[in-house]
Design a protein that fits this description.
- 40% of the residues lie in helices and 9% in strands.
- The chain has 13 helices and seven strands.
- A hairpin with a 2-residue loop joins strand 1 and strand 2.
- The longest helix has 28 residues.
- The two termini are 22 Å apart.
- The N terminus is likely disordered.
């Protein structure tokens, strides 16, 4: 993979970059969020996030680049490493200061229509916002100014002009997420839309699944894991309620999206693209025949790097290239089919990310792979079955072109952007239909060991 800070190539198993010293180990996800939240399709636009133009699968294996833009869960992006400022004295702290928070948890602190949010439930939304931020940013979190070793109400959120703390930022995120999911959930109920069979099955098996996961993670049961992640007094029922709201809202959102998608015409998308051509150009998307994605197979032969050296020599690069050429010649001399290429990849490739799949990468989009790899993939002259060699910072790749999507990049992205904007209008309307109120004076946030698991 590449260093996530300076993009220098890293040898397999190396996490500390020899170029800039950055530690590329990802921040571990909290145990609970691995259990349930990861299984829920949480739509970025539902929680008011930035729309990704390139939504292809990100991979840290040998030929992918770590410089992709990532959809942010909060608006906290790009602060200066090491920048600290004292917390202004007028900033509030919502952390409960006593020893026993149990009396505060049942208090209602927010309302939307008939839906009420207690302190207990608000803590689930709050800490989920925090964990989701870490899950999204991984090792980048430190470069946004967040220090898990410090209390969140004692750190200034550097993107705030008012000196807000990270606690305030995550609380704002939690309330924003709750209002959007809650409004969708209320509208679904108003229209008689219930959970799908699959969604209900997930909800019904949740306690059993979480208890099993808790024991594997070293907890007595799911309840103990809940309290570890969300604080004293927070129950499994509160978390199940959180999951149910998200499931119902997401399913209803998907239903509305599919209805709009089925009515959308290519002519509408084309006009939308023309009206926003400059926006698409910023992301390198033009109205051409570039496919939305391609499927390729490859066999990576790494260029060796001498001990103590920062990069391979020209001789080492040539050795990798020559070995890759011999593998390509070997394949061509045989059956020269995709199946034989896959078998050879399993034997020869030095890319651990695709070894078991026979070198296969599917749904590869522009901006996902390193430049040289991508240029070969999206060469308009390539057709099914084409092969060749590509030299990249990792070494030499033996390539096999599997297929390209029938839909073009500009058309697919145009549809995604158009539908996202249309659905944002829907949610804005629902938030007007279902206004909410928050009693900040009654808020009481639990104390959680934010360094647990790091």
């Amino acid at each position: 993979m590449n260093c996530k800070k300076c993009q220098a190539p890293l040898d397999e198993g190396v996490t500390v970059c020899p170029q800039c010293g950055f530690d590329n180990r990802s921040v571990n996800k909290k145990k609970l969020t691995l259990v349930i939240v990861g299984a829920i399709v949480v739509l970025a636009v539902v929680v008011g996030l930035v729309i990704m133009l390139t939504t292809g699968k990100k991979d840290d294996s040998a030929e992918t680049t770590a410089s992709n833009e990532t959809t942010a869960v909060t608006d906290g992006t790009g602060t200066t490493e090491g920048t600290e400022a004292p917390v202004p004295v007028d900033r509030p702290s919502y952390t409960f200061q006593g020893e026993d928070i149990s009396a505060e948890l049942p208090k209602v602190v927010a309302k939307m229509g008939d839906a009420e949010v207690t302190n207990a439930w608000m803590n689930v939304w709050y800490w989920s916002a925090y964990y989701e931020y870490l899950n999204q940013y991984g090792a980048y979190a430190a470069y946004t100014g967040l220090d898990p070793q410090k209390e969140l109400d004692q750190q200034v959120y550097a993107m705030s002009d008012e000196g807000k703390t990270w606690q305030e930022m995550f609380l704002e995120q939690a309330i924003m997420s709750w209002t959007r999911y809650q409004a969708l959930s209320l509208e679904a109920q108003a229209n008689g839309v219930t959970l799908s069979e699959e969604g209900q099955k997930q909800l019904d098996s949740m306690e059993k699944d979480m208890n099993e996961a808790a024991k594997k993670a070293g907890f007595e049961d799911a309840q103990k894991m809940i309290e570890n992640d969300f604080g004293q007094g927070i129950t499994l029922e509160e978390y199940k309620k959180y999951v149910q709201t998200i499931l119902q809202a997401s399913e209803y959102y998907n239903k509305l999206t599919e209805e709009k998608k089925s009515a959308l015409t290519d002519e509408q998308v084309s006009q939308y693209f023309d009206d926003n051509v400059e926006k698409f150009a910023e992301y390198g998307i033009a109205k051409d025949e570039t496919p939305a994605f391609v499927d390729v197979r490859h066999i990576l032969i790494k260029a060796e790097v001498s001990e103590g050296a920062e990069a391979p020599t020209e001789e080492q690069k040539k050795a990798a290239h020559d070995k890759a050429q011999s593998i390509l010649d070997q394949w061509k001399a045989g059956e020269a089919t995709e199946e034989s290429f896959a078998a050879l990849a399993k034997e020869q490739t030095e890319d651990p990310g695709s070894k078991e799949t026979g070198g296969l990468y599917t749904n590869v989009r522009k901006g996902q792979m390193v430049k040289e790899f991508e240029q070969w993939c999206f060469d308009p002259a390539h057709k099914v079955g084409d092969s060749g060699l590509v030299d990249s910072p990792y070494g030499t790749h033996v390539m096999y072109f599997v297929k390209a999507s029938d839909e073009t990049l500009w058309m697919q992205t145009g549809k995604e952007m158009y539908l996202a904007e249309e659905m944002e209008k829907v949610i804005t309307g629902l938030l007007e239909k279902y206004p909410h109120e928050v009693d900040y004076d009654a808020l009481a946030l639990t104390k959680v060991n934010t360094t647990s698991g790091y």
